[in-house]
Amino acid sequence: MPMKHVILLIVLCLPAWGCDTYPKDPRNTLKTATGGTLRVGYSENPPWVIKTDSVPTGIEANLVKAFAATLKAQVAWHNDTEQNLFEDLEKQKLHLVIAGITDNNPWKKKVGLTRPFVETGEKKHVMAAIQGENAFIVRLERFLHEHEQAINARVQP
Amino acid sequence: MKQLKRFEFPEELRPDFERARRLEWITIAYLISTAITVYLTMGNSQAMKTAWFEDLLSLTPSVSFLIASRIFMKSPNKNFPYGYHRVVSIAYLCSALALFSIGAFLVIDSATTLVKAEHATIGTVVLFGYPIWLGYLMIAAMLWGTFPAMILGQKKLPLAKKLHEKNLYTDAKMNKADWMTAAAAIFGILGIGMGWWWADAVAALVIAVDIVHDGYINLKQAIFDLMDEIPKTVDNQTTDPLLDSIKSKLAGFAWIKDFRIRLREEGHIYLGEGFIVPNQEENLTLLIENAASEIQSLDWRIQEFVIMPVRILPED
């Protein structure tokens, strides 16, 4: 491929950079959830996720509620074991899994982990989304970044 | 034991050889810098990990060139009567194998990504307090992998032909492989941004086929050179026209009735023998000596040409 063509193609792709809808999701997770339902799987792991009689609470559960509100989405909660949640996430039955998981989770090759949103000692905490749903993950990571200070305040004693 | 003369490039080619060495040092520094850039931006991306692995492997030709260049000029001695030229062919084999491996690895890697339908996850990274899409950073890192590699490769090609340096030629091909995979990765990442999860793997697969092709041709030639195939040109693996010049030179001597020659390549240089049926016995030793030195002066690459007088030509 001559250099001219490379430059030409890069220039042609440039308009996509400024776009709001870039990157996009291959499976439209963000579109489906926005104004619709965000399907979230959770497994108890205090203080991150705490099971109650109704909806879960805890640091991560509260973050998900606030995130869903920015998308004007209802949250459909599913409680299960971590193993079952990750299997469902891999099959795209869920949009998001929270269970106080960290970035060295062995499922990281099959799901899409977010960038760590808080560190406690050696542990880097993340949430798990569907693999390759980049628009959704980018939106979620931006949300978590905006709340970084509030999260830190809750974690540090 | 009769040893070869000590080999050095002819006076007019020495500056070219020095330029080639400088280019290879620049290549090493450059490849290390791209490996670091890619490492810093790779995140969880499998495609970027592949690019990183490839950067490390693509150091092989330049490193082997520099190692070989410290060895091949050593004087022949009683343990190495033919000198150290073959080290160039060995370096060529290493480089060609590295090029072929990169191609083969890329084919397998991108094919499995497609078959398994692995969707690349590219999230954000915080830069100056603001989270931006890591894909943009990867593209920037990959741009550093294209243009300098392109220029380095272009500069090496003419030198490789002049110096009869097949290893340098393979390194130019390696630079081509480098910039093409980097360009493919850019399109792949842009494609992923468009929601086309397969874009990265497809782009890599297309480029990989080309790399396998270059790798295969050079790997084959490197093996054939070590198996004493007749000398082939650097750029397109055709029989060196120098063989015809030798034949027409010998045919021009009135005292030679018939002859057969054979040549082989040892790195930069050629060694060979000519079996001749002389027309006359008178002055034969002197005639042979003169003929041999005339042939050796045809080209710097003909390092030693031995002429053997026979009554009947050996069977082919």
UniProtKB/TrEMBL annotation, chain A:
State a single Pfam family of this protein.
SBP_bac_3
Keywords, A to Z?
Signal
Chain ranges of the Solute-binding protein family 3/N-terminal domain = 38-123
Q: Which domain of life is it from?
A: Bacteria
Which interval of the chain is the signal sequence?
Answer: 1-18
Protein name per the record: Transporter substrate-binding domain-containing protein
Give the organism the record lists.
Nibrella viscosa
Cite the source lineage.
Answer: Bacteria, Pseudomonadati, Bacteroidota, Cytophagia, Cytophagales
TrEMBL record, chain B:
Q: Boundaries of each Cation efflux protein transmembrane domain copy?
A: 29-227
Membrane topology listed for this record: Multi-pass membrane protein
- Locations listed in the record: Membrane
Q: Which residues cross the membrane?
A: 23-40, 52-72, 84-108, 128-152, 179-199
Query: What's the main place this protein lives?
Result: membrane
- Database matches in Pfam families: Cation_efflux (PF01545)
In terms of NCBIfam families, this protein maps to:
CDF (TIGR01297)
Q: Does the keyword 4Fe-4S apply?
A: no
**Keywords assigned by UniProt?**
Membrane, Transmembrane, Transmembrane helix, Transport
Q: Which organism is it from?
A: Nibrella viscosa
Name of the featured protein? Cation transporter
Family membership? Belongs to the cation diffusion facilitator (CDF) transporter (TC 2.A.4) family.
